[in-house]
Amino acid sequence: MKAVIKTLIDKAVEEILKEGGLEAELPEYTVEVPNNKDHGDFAANTALKLSKSLRKNPFDIAADIAGRMKHPLIEKCEPVRPGFINFSISKTFYTDLLRDCISSDVPFMSDMGGGRKVMVEFVSANPTGPLHIGHGRNAAYGDSLARILKAAGFEVMTEYYVNDAGKQMSNLGKSIYVRYLQVCGKDAEFPEDGYKGDYITDIAKELHKIHGDKLLSMDEKEALNLAFEYGLEDIRSGIEADLEEFRVTFQRWFSEKSLYESGEVEECLAELRTLGHVYDSEGAVWFASTKFGDDKDRVVKRQNGEYTYFASDIAYHRNKFRRGVRTSIDVWGADHHGYVKRLASAVYSLGIEDFDFNVSLIQMVNLIKDGERASMSTRAGEFITLKWLIDEIGVDAARFFYLMRDFEAQFDFDIDLAKKRTSDNPVYYVQYAHARVYGLYSKAAEQGLKWEKGAELHLLELDEEKEIIRKLYELRGIVETSAFHRQPHRVIYYLQELASMFHSYYYNNVIINPESPELSGARLSLCAGVAAAVRFGLDLLGVSAPERM
């Protein structure tokens, strides 16, 4: 509501300045809830801030602004000395809003995106092993951001970029092949840069179970490729299964290898060469990234004829645009921060108009269990899997905790707190608000109370009740700001505040009183509005809204 009032005030001030032929900047002012309830629902000090630049009495300025306030939200707007503007919100606005919240999710949704096509590409972990808890934060963030963007009116695509080409894939194939040889009883030395996790041995055993000793009689190159292909599919399908359990699905799994097979990498570099951004030197092919602010030019094709990851990444983003994507949001780990400028330079060097390239760098998560911090190393095989975390605390707690902090901040994931079933656990506290509403429904039915959702709402006259409805009104704005700043944690802050308001209201007031069926019905309707907002907000996070706890 404050945002609406500020918008109306800004418009009024702009009109006043234009009519007076004045060139003054819009001042910094506040819209606050006054301490004295007789002064209305909100008060603004705009006129006091404008008086000096306009050289007018602040009360007169306040009167001028108040006379221009026309909106269904506002029942009364009046100037008070020395120059405040008091606003009273229409009771009809409150009741209509609550009815809308009860009947559908539309009041919580926005058309801010205007249908612009956005792709959120996230997780995209190299398929060299199971997802670990660090990938979990990336997954929770990317999926929640996609849900929020959709609620904000964007057309959203989700994608997992499968890095199935390059040196790391070669190392994966070698690792599996050597373990296979060892399973066959052969004395084979494990590669120094191989993947040492037990899962590699498990894959080799399965490979042997299917093919027996067949690979021993094959050409080594052919055997390595078979080991790689089998291992890649095994790991990729395991990743997909873990993500599905984590309530994360993708519209497409895009193969890096396909960019080479289709010739798109070569086409992309040829286009950059035509534009004057690619050149040959020292037997290699280079992208002139210094032209775009990078500290040095970057190799896209090595002297040995192999392409770099950079080359395929450029081609991949060119491919995104050709599929109609107009905003690309890449969700990467914080260790990729040095790569952002490089890729952004390459993307924009293609001269693509109306294409936004954005990167969210997800900071590390530290797992705390029994007061101890766990360390991880994928290559050394020392890591805690996302699957373990899901089994340990459940999907709801895992997703909620991952999203509690800004993605740009590191945080400690407290396993012990996430497992608690008390109000100390933030996800339990929010979910319990939803379950408590359904508990009230059951209690009303047990007492034979007949009520209709959305009826007799004029009886909601307590300040607490108005504050809760105001909070429901804020959710659409939270969706918009969360989408604009790419910050799902704003939804969590909102839900915690709403849950706190509701729990307080529950403890301080009699919700169900058979002797006052109309008031009881109105209050149950208010509770229904809270449940709808909590349910909608939790869904944006990929967290369930239980009816019983």
Widest sheet, order of strands:
7-6-5-11-12
CA-atom Rg in angstroms = 29 Å
How many E strands?
A: 15
Helix content: 40-55%
What is the overall number of helices?
A: 19
State the separation between the terminal residues, measured CA to CA.
Answer: 33 Å
* Low-confidence runs of at least 5 consecutive residues: 377-381
CATH homolog superfamily of the domain at 94-112 and 422-541: Isoleucyl-tRNA Synthetase, Domain 1
The residue-averaged pLDDT reads: 94
Looking at the structure, the CATH topology of the domain at 94-112 and 422-541 is Isoleucyl-tRNA Synthetase, Domain 1
What is the CATH top level name of the domain at 94-112 and 422-541? Mainly Alpha
The major pleated sheet works out as:
5 strands, parallel
Q: Give the class from helix and strand content and strand pairing.
A: alpha/beta
The shape, in one word, is: flat
Mind explaining what this structure looks like?
With 549 residues, the chain is α/β, with parallel strands linked by helices. Among the domains are: 2-89, 2-Layer Sandwich (Gyrase A, domain 2); 94-112 and 422-541, Orthogonal Bundle (Isoleucyl-tRNA Synthetase, Domain 1). The chain is 51% helix and 13% strand. It has helices at 2-19, 46-54, 58-66, 91-103, 133-151, 167-183, 198-211, 220-245, 256-261, 264-274, 309-322, 337-349, 386-393, 395-402, 415-418, 426-446, 463-485, 489-508, 517-541, and strands spanning 31-32, 42-44, 74-80, 84-89, 117-121, 155-162, 252-255, 278-281, 284-287, 298-301, 327-333, 356-362, 365-369, 372-373, 411-414. The strands form 4 sheets. The protein has a 5-stranded parallel β-sheet with strand order 7-6-5-11-12, with helices on both faces. Strand 11 (327-333), helix 12 and strand 12 (356-362) form a beta-alpha-beta unit. Helix 6 packs across helix 7 and helix 13 (386-393) crosses helix 14 (395-402).
